[in-house]
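Protein Entry — a single chain follows
Fields — amino acid sequence, structure tokens
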Amino acid sequence: MSDLIIVCLIFVVSLVVLVKASDFFTDAAEKVGLFIGLSPFIIGVTIVSIGTSLPELISSILAVLQNSSEIVVSNVVGSNIANIFLIIGTASIMSARYLSITYDLVSVDLPLFVGSAFLLALAIGDASFSSGEAGLLILGYLMYLFYTIKGSEENEPEANDEQDGTIVNKNSSFLLRQIIIIVVSAIFLFLGANYTIDSLTKISEILNIGKEIIAVSAVALGTSLPELIVTINAGIKGKAEIAVGNVIGSNIFNAFIVMGIPRLIGNLVIPEAVLFHGMPTMVAGTILLFFATQDKKLTQWEGWLFFVFYGWFIGKTFNLL
């Protein structure tokens, strides 16, 4: 029992390190982008959106390298489910009456959001995932970036030295400090992901539970903490609708990149539990969010419904229901 407690503590600490290192990495990278004059929108759709999904990507790459590739698809599916049901549910419940969505999602984001879920389901539906399919998913993400940037560059104001209250210094010492933060946080990203996967493997051995079960629940929830924190902070500031765009961008990145890049490194094992339980839940959640956002608002009762779905998913995952 003492060994299990120690390993669980290592698991929790490594997850916290992984998430916090991702936060520091993203913040410093965003400041470097502003320093060199990148558009705030370009920074948002690249550095920030990718940064919040770094825990999933780094942990998935290390899982392949450590011969625990079944964690990859479990992490992706579990994170996407947590993003939809837990994070969107939180954003909806935190809203006063309903969560208003003022920006246009229909033209590019929602179709790619639904398409990424269906393409991933089709790609792994035969319990295999080829390198060609991985390349196709990566290409899909590049197309998403291209159309998102192209469709918004005309309406994006030029980058200023001050964005959202963040003043960017124009001196070399500032740039050097941010680069150091990026390097150090990248090291902690690697260490956090490495210990997360290692401790997960040991926990599964001690409890005799499949690694994919822990990955689709605990790891997925842990690596979704950046999105959850963004949602809570945005809700406190009265801008909870940011969570919708954040979740959509993160899920697209997970389905396309977090699945695609690890497959180019090595073969991926597709667990049956994820294929026949997790994947249908993810697709159902994707369709539910698609229809729920058609009227450009999410009510509190819809948020509670998302919570119920997530509770059911966790219950079925651990055979509690």
Residues 172-207 form the longest helix (36 residues). Residues 2-317 form a domain with the A middle domain of Talin 1 fold (CATH 1.20.1420.30). The beta strands are 98-100, 162-163, 166-167, 297-299. The two ends are 26 Å apart (CA to CA).
